[in-house]
Amino acid sequence: MLLAYRCALASERVTAAAVEATEFPAAADRHGVVSVPAIVANDRLAWVGSVPEKAFVEHVHRVSKSLP
User: Under a CB-based contact definition with an 8 Å cutoff, are residues 44 and 30 in contact?
Assistant: First the structure.
């Protein structure tokens, strides 16, 4: 989660938020989260599980460039 916050600080096109899935099950259900950690990008489940930092940053960069 710290890396997501760092990405958000580095770019105005990126926002980050941590949600405790067990405390907010409606949010988890809305995004298809069934296990944690889970990363949601553009309101869609991007991946579940641990991701190497480089892959995470590359994905965030790619997604942020595709935004209007």
Answer: no
The span from the CA of 68 to the CA of 56, in Å, is 21
pTM for the model: 0.76
Query: Is the distance from CB of 1 to CB of 16 less than 8 angstroms?
Result: yes
Q: With contact defined as beta carbons under 8 Å apart, do 56 and 3 qualify?
A: yes
Could you write out the DSSP letters of every residue in 44-58?
EEEEES---HHHHHH
pLDDT value, residue 5:
93
- Give the integer Cα–Cα distance in Å for 7 and 34: 25
